[in-house]
Specification:
235 residues; 8 strands; globular; 8 helices; alpha/beta; 8-stranded mixed beta sheet
Length: 235
């Protein structure tokens, strides 16, 4: 894995030099997949047939600094990443995310979080799909942290499905507290989309039910690392 750092830098530079998010996604995807192949890091992707034809809110478990790059490598179509606001000013992560057209939201101020949820819903109403790590952060230990409500509130407001996606192998590749990757096999599993409940009394109730449904899907996969995905394609 000695070449991972230099190749990751090239991937970042190629993405940083783009000026349009759609171009950045295409460039970033090709560069990320080339990086994984060059470092003999296998990536299998299952469940792409579950990608909705229309806009959705993709939610994924979070376990590594490389999760965004892994999703870019795995997914054939652009998503708008939703990232915590403190990343916006970081040179490496912030530049990469801005080139991909990411939107930055507040994690802690309740009043601001409500406004951010409405902003996220408006993005989806415009026909663009979101990609969110609803845990908001990650730790070295396996398992699923509590899920923030914002992504689910946005889906309920925009009346679009939530698409659960599970990433495996990311903590083994580059966990929290470590800056040098290790060899690992990666897998991305796209699950069936979950539509917002039509019979919920209000948006908050709909968002809460969506969150619970998605939490069950993600937790069942994340807490059972031996569970293998279904038929997959290699990156």
């Amino acid at each position: 894995m000695a070449v991972f750092g230099p190749l990751a830098t090239v991937t970042w530079l190629l993405t940083a030099l783009t000026t349009r998010p759609a171009t950045a996604w295409v460039v970033g995807r090709a560069a990320a997949r080339a990086l994984l192949r060059a470092t003999a890091t296998p990536l299998t992707v299952a469940g792409l047939q579950h990608l909705p034809a229309g806009p959705c809110v993709l939610v994924s478990n979070h376990g590594s600094y490389l999760d965004g790059m892994i999703l870019v490598a795995a997914l054939p179509q652009p998503f708008v990443f939703i990232a915590k606001r403190e990343l916006q000013q970081q040179f490496v992560a912030g530049t990469y995310l801005r080139r991909l057209g990411a939107e930055f939201v507040e994690r802690f101020a309740a009043q601001r979080s409500v406004a951010d949820a409405e902003h996220m819903a408006e993005i989806v109403r415009q026909g663009r799909s979101l990609a969110v790590f609803p845990e908001g952060t990650f730790v070295a230990e396996h398992g699923l942290l509590p899920l923030h409500l914002g992504a689910f509130m946005a889906a309920a407001r925009a009346a679009v499905p939530v698409l659960p996606v599970v990433i495996r192998g990311h903590r083994e590749l580059l966990p929290a507290g470590r800056w040098w990757p290790r060899h690992a096999a990666l897998a991305v599993e796209v699950h069936a989309a979950i539509a917002p409940p039509a019979d919920a009394a209000d948006l908050f109730a709909a968002a809460a039910r969506l969150r619970e449904s998605v939490r069950q899907v993600l937790a069942a996969a994340v807490e059972d690392p031996a569970r293998a995905p279904g038929p997959a394609e290699a990156a």
